[in-house]
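User: Can you fold this complex?
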Amino acid sequence: MGNKTLSLRPAVRLLLGAVSAAALLAAAPAHAQEPVQPIEVPKNVNPAKVELGKKLWFDPRLSRSGFISCNSCHNLSMGGSDNLKTSIGHNWQKGPINSPTVLNSSLNMAQFWDGRAKDLREQAGGPIANPGEMAFTHDLAVDMLRSIPQYVAEFQKVFGTDKLTIDEVTSAIAAFEETLVTPNARFDKWLKGDKQAINQQELRGYELFKNSGCVACHNGPNLGGTSFQKMGLVEPYKTDNPAEGRFAVTGNDAERFNFKVPTLRNVELTYPYFHDGAADTLAQAVDTMGRIQLGRTFTKQENADIVAFLKTLTGEQPEIMLPILPPSSDRTPRPQPFDD
Ligand code: HEC
Ligand code: HEC
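Assistant: Here's the predicted assembly.
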């Protein structure tokens, strides 16, 4: 008897296995098999904190000049970037690297091209104190905010203390940035089962994007942001830009010229491309990627198909009501736009 039950077991297990697999398939969303997932809208946002973060995001008084805000280089009217090869900082300084979009950056495993900041909070302290960007200091930024009674009251309301620290500043900015996601791109609608959401050419482009190997690096909901990869895997990438990528963070020679794989969400809006901003158009970027990452030269038609697919990744842009910033008080330090 014991033997009989034993011998039945594998069959039962097989059957159960088949049933649960079928149940899973029925319940699984249409995109379960795809290397790319739709963008989800963040839950549990703290509206007061987001609103404060939005003010700080747009406030140029966080810079020495009183002229440069986060939005100067990550313009939310232009896909969260500045559309320049490299950014312009304090005193019209030429920036060292292309400004990546802030849209969906909360989905990246780390921040910056070389991933040197682990998250948005850590990142947000950087530009304020960077002499080539906002050229301020954390102490001066906090002093400035403390001199403005409306800010003091708002920080108190959000954080429940009247300390007003740089950690609160970066935490509020990060909370705002977490809301900068772009759901419901046409491609996401397709992923969720609306087969009419993209056309034949765009679908061909997606198939090529998958089958030629782009998804090895550009995957997940952000089509990027999940790994650091060599720029020029198959063929070296030529550039005058001195950035060394991940090597600058780890000192590991094997990671020289490894960069965080950038998101391809909204890539139609975030030209020019690559860390040095060298590719002006999507056609150029796709051509370069094919050759140096995959050793493949796309035909004109193939290139156009992939570009058409990439344009289906433009999502609903955050709808932003411009904040009215609290006025400076008599005590607020005055801007210093020029060094003379
Ligand atoms: C002068 C232009 C400039 C200003 C001002 C500026 N940024 Fe940036 N930002 C950049 C550049 C350039 C990079 C890329 C730097 C790098 O990777 O080394 C960057 C990177 C980032 C990233 C990383 C995105 C990613 O996917 O890696 C975030 C997030 C960000 N900035 C947010 C902010 C916030 C918040 C502020 C305001 C406190 C700000 N930036 C101000 C130019 C600027
Ligand atoms: C081996 C990994 C890898 C593969 C494969 C790959 N990419 Fe990339 N891709 C990257 C990295 C890394 C960057 C950023 C490089 C830099 O700027 O130095 C990038 C950048 C891009 C950019 C520019 C994005 C921006 O905002 O600057 C586009 C567009 C792009 N890739 C498309 C593609 C396409 C299309 C394919 C397939 C033909 C592909 N990639 C294959 C790793 C990869």
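The beta strands are 88-89, 93-94, 228-230, 258-260. The pocket of heme C (ligand 2) is lined by residues 209, 212-214, 216-218, 229, 231, 233, 259, 261-262, 264, 267, 270, 273-275, 285-286, 289-290, 293-294, 306 (CB under 6 Å).
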